[in-house]
Amino acid sequence: MPLPHFEYVAARTVGEALDLWRERPACAYFAGGTDLLPQMRLGRRAPATIIDIKGVGGLDRIRETEAGLVIGAAVPLAVIETDPVVRADFPLLAECARVVGARPLRNRATLVGNICNASPAADTAVALLVLDGLVRTVGADGARELPVNEFFTGPGRTLLRPGELVTEVVLPRAAVWRGSYLRLSRRRGMDLATVGVLVACSNGASPPRYRIALSAVAPVPLRVRDAEALLDAEGAGGAGGHGWAATIGRAAEIARASCSPITDMRGTAEYRRDMVGVLVARGAAALAQAWVW
Amino acid sequence: MAGTEDETTAGGVPRIVGTSPVRTDGWEKVSGQAMFIADLPLADAWIGGTLRSPVPRGRLRGIRRDPAFDWSRVSVVTAADLPGPNTVAMIREDHPVLAAEEVRFVAEAVALVAAPDPETLRAAIAAISLDIEGLPAVLTMEDALDGRIVIWGTSNILAEYCVSRGDVAAALHDADLVVEGEYRTGYQEHLYIETNGLVAIPHDGGAIEIVGSLQCPFYVRNALARGLALSPEQVIVRQVATGGAFGGKEDFPSVLAMHAAVLAQRCGRPVRMIYDRTEDIRATTKRHPSIVRHRTGVRRDGTIVGAEIDIVFDGGAYTTLSPVVLSRGILHAGGAYRIPAASIRGRAVATNTPPNGAFRGFGVPQTMFAIERQIDRIAATLGLDPLQVRRKNLLRTGDILPYGQVLEEDVGAEAVLERVVEISGYEAWHGKVGRSGASDGHGVSPVAVDGRGDSPRARDEQDGRSLARSGRRVRRGLGLSLFHHGSGFTGAGEDKIAGRVHVRLVPGPAGDADGVYEVLVSSTEMGQGAATVLCQIAAETLGVPLERVSMPLPDTSVVPDSGPTVASRTTMIVGRILVDACHDLAQRLTDARVAGERGPVTGKAVYQPTPGLAWDEVAYHGDAYKAYAWGADVVEVEVDEDTLEVSPVRAWAVVEIGKAVHPVLAAGQVEGGTLQGFGWACLEEIKSSGGRFLNDRMATYIVPTALDAPPITVEIIELPHPRGPLGAKGLGELPIDGPAPAFAAAVTDALGLFPCELPITPERLLALQDGPPTDLASAAESP
Lengths: 293, 783
Fold this sequence. Notes:
The complex is a heterodimer. Chain A is of the alpha+beta class.
């Protein structure tokens, strides 16, 4: 289907974007558009007005602040995945950004767009969950700061209120988390995740802390805190020690039990659940191999 | 001029056939100058759209138009408004232009609308509602065969053919073992880059012109002449630059052209209809799903003594080309093997699903997958290496095919098999001596035999997956396939088509010396390189540089009917007629210039039946094809033991095609067909629910990308065939016949599982792993 008719307006400031939303009918904010435009073609969304925020001053930058690294809503994924600071201090985000779609798409698609779209399979969401990212918004009721860990409420649904604009994401500099995003997809290029598992460890912390986040296996991307707690408790004396393999197996079982996948075009619920177990075990084992404790 | 073949070959003029010049259509395509159908400027054209059935089967009780809509702004056509018979003429006349009393598949066209702009079109279609009383539908081949619900004819059988040779019952009785297997394959969507699309332009007196992305201009002309009750001359069909087809623009454009034409006549202006991807996937043809059962009698040394083969293809709701697809599937069902006694039955059944049609391979990939898996099963059952069983049974010159054809030509089967074994290191991998591919667990990673797989591993590290991949338990496996494909139409098909070719010399300012030669054929360039290859053949035959030969886009009012661009026939059959036309031109040119005539001169030729070849259409017996091309693939796969993801990491393809007119384009055909075969083998799948296709977008219908393509080593062997131009045989379809069974065999080699159904997805492998052990011996019975 061709795109339906809509009005395009470009905002230059956050205030102007909010004003435009108030004044015009049925608005949608627009950054990369890589989710919005296909959804409009498919008839799933029909905004009468599209408010482009790419030209809003300041939203196109990555900057250092006391609260942490701040990534503006108009920064495309291709910039994030290659940014030296992100790669050095938040390598998990760079890794998750790098597997979204294909490079031409990532030249337009944004991190903020990826989380606002709130797909259960959002690749960057698992990184932000593990990194305790914060979502900064501005709306009619003023500014808010929402933990990414509370942001997703269902497929395509978030805590955002009508007209509320996400301006940036904050990555607190609490620890450097390392690990790997294990992602199954039907093909290598240009595909959504069938199952995504991020297993991470805080590098240098003593005792080590673990985090596990899952994508594409529940209505929202989610953390598996019970499995994290198990690894934290059992790993306190040093991962890779006696019984660690059994601990990993129990963590994998907890993760399996805590997901609620569906059967769709990309895979069956049973396969997805099995793979959560396989990938959590694999990711945890890889951590043990990657560092000498 | 260097007007004869003798001067060309003996006179020191550089050869053109066998070299790889830049494609004649290359520059205009890479520079964006080529005009595709969406690029054609047509200021006054309206846009056509289609209202489709939402149910797989139902009685169409009424079509209601919302009185609130201003219907004067658009044109609407339903079955009641058609100017001619409600049929799209193909093999049978069962395919209506628009559903009249009954709808028979989800997405069947019920009403057509033309409007000046997309918004009006969308609003008009939304203002039409269908009153349909649902009827019980047949959605599977099993339901079609059991016949409790009859939706076509008296028994849901669209076509049935039988082939037999020798006393099969006796052969199976006397065999040491009878091995049984059942094999299934699924849909495949062409996913050509450019969707189906065309423009219909009405002319005075009811005449109509079609301009479009299509494969077979004369098929469209004939269908329109019938459907619009016009003379063939009143229908002009022109092809524009076409972005891929793979068979998907063979039969379907006749349907789309009828739709656009009736709308254009209705509104009295050009109507453009270009499907978007979703409509194209929902409504157009696909590769036929299949079920093939084999019972093969073998001796303990692996020699095949007899075979029973039963084939079922899912034809969908209407006949389209199913009988000929089935026929070709049957004729190749025995594979490239000597089967002394054979009985082959094939049926195409009707279901309430979109009609299936032509797709590269045309029935052969399905039956070739089955026979190749069956050979692997025989090997596993007998404890032999699959290569050993193939060597023992492969066809040689002088052998007789199940339908009675004696192979008098040079048979390339052994040559391609031995060469692919050599270059792939297959024997080193499998330990040289025959051993069972299914029972031994081998190929445990990490494996690097003779440096194999270096390239894929290097690629993994480049894309940043090295850490993510650590901790994987990986196995590798190597699989083999041997296959063949008949060139040109089956049996007397080419005699009936009687393809014609013209070659015209248009003198330049300096007369003939700088004149231009035009190859006038209905063959279409759709990406495969036909325009380049035919110009090469003409240039070589005429003894002129390639730059002086061109092949204009076909226009049915200008070019003769050379037959459709299908069936791996263009190079071999049309190319052969072209050689004759070039010779005719040389003769006529001499005559004309002697007589003092100065203008353009046209040479003409028509297909000449091959003496000594005979085909009995009723008994299905005789010389089915004028030549066979041969191929052998070896595929190496990597399997993740825990996730059961399988990917091809390396492939070797050796083909014997008589003569490669353009070696680079020929190798490209092999690479492309091989990758398309891998897609069918492990990725591509239509998911449906209640007869509705669910994955109707490129985001959900998954085909391989460049990142999924393994390095493919291609080698071409040439055993020149006397019936082809300069020895060339057909190539286009051959490469897609072998990859899927070789892929499956590689999975068997890696995991010890024996997949019998395509696509081979992780879920299917998990089911095989969790199911009862694959006890291949139990599939055999001792008579």
